[in-house]
Design a protein that fits this description.
The complex is a heterodimer of chains A (119) and B (145).
Chain A lengths: L3 E8 L2 E10 L4 H13 L4 E12 L1 H16 L3 E5 L3 H9 L8 E2 L2 H8 L6
Parallel strand pairs in A: 2-3, 3-4, 4-5
Antiparallel strand pairs in A: 1-2
Helix pairs in contact in A: 1-2
Chain B lengths: L5 E10 L5 H14 L4 H22 L7 E9 L2 E8 L14 H7 L5 H9 L2 E7 L3 E9 L3
Antiparallel strand pairs in B: 1-2, 2-3, 3-5, 4-5
Helix pairs in contact in B: 1-2, 2-4
Chain lengths: 119, 145
């Protein structure tokens, strides 16, 4: 069976989802559950940290597509960080970089939610 | 030497459950590595096979886990062929348009990406019906010379 783990934590007003292992049609419902929990809690600012994600199929990509608009309608977004090249290439093949923001580091993605930088 | 000399044939049969996707990927990975593909190409082949089997589980068997999926891999010199067969409901992939992500985004549509990915990841993707009304999708990747 595919190993997949999802963890949710709060950083200020932003919800960070850590995904680990293999995200496919079998494990995607676990990620959907986390997004449903966020909607229940009216948490719309989301960063997904891909640092430990080894594999993604279109079933996993579909989860982000299913929730991003609701987040944006509520002044939030789903932003991506720490993605390995092999995983990014799949997002890229499907044209995600046009519609989603990708960051090297999680804190850059979180900062983006707090508006223009203070000096 | 014949350019298409057969190197090996491998086959597994699994139940139509998403539970088995990991096993399918492991089987495909071992065969692709044995054929001499690099890490990048192996990753593409694994994903294409995953997408094909996910589509069968979803569309041909409609998430019933009682169906069978047969995955046969033939490695010839220079050519890697994966034939995936099921006995579920036939669906015509040529009727499904290529997705436009912007349109998808507007319509909140989340399916149909797998077939598009398969075409982009493999050199050839062919759909057909074989004996006893079975559906078959054949994925081909050529080894770099």
């Amino acid at each position: 069976m595919a190993e997949f783990n999802v963890n949710l934590r709060g950083v200020g007003s932003v919800s960070v989802i850590d995904v680990k292992g293999y995200l496919d049609a079998h494990t995607a419902p676990e990620l959907e559950n986390v997004f449903n929990r966020l909607l229940d809690q009216k948490q719309y600012q989301v960063v997904v940290n891909f640092d430990d994600l080894k594999y993604i199929s279109s079933a996993g990509l579909g989860v982000f597509m299913a929730y991003v608009e609701t987040m944006r309608e509520n002044e939030g977004d789903i932003k991506f960080s720490n993605m390995k090249e092999n995983v990014y290439n799949i997002f890229d093949l499907l044209g995600f970089p046009i519609l989603y923001e990708f960051f090297k580091e999680e804190n850059e993605a979180i900062k983006k939610f707090s508006g223009p930088e203070q000096s | 030497m014949n350019a298409l000399e057969k190197i090996f044939d491998k086959q597994i049969v699994v139940r139509s459950s998403t539970d088995n996707l990991a096993q399918i990927r492991d089987f495909t990975k071992a065969a692709a590595l044995q054929s001499g593909f690099g890490e990048d190409a192996v990753g593409k082949i694994i994903l294409a096979v995953d997408e094909a089997c996910t589509n069968i589980i979803k569309h041909a068997y409609k998430f019933s886990t009682n169906g069978e999926i047969t995955i046969s891999i033939t490695s010839s010199k220079g050519k890697f062929t994966i034939a995936i067969t099921d006995e579920g409901t036939h669906f015509d992939p040529t009727q499904i348009p290529e997705p436009d992500l912007r349109e998808y985004y507007k319509q909140k549509r989340v399916g149909g990406l797998g077939m598009f990915l398969m075409k982009r990841l493999m050199d050839e993707v062919k759909y057909g019906t074989i004996t006893d009304n079975k559906n078959q999708v054949v994925l081909i990747k050529y080894l770099p010379q």
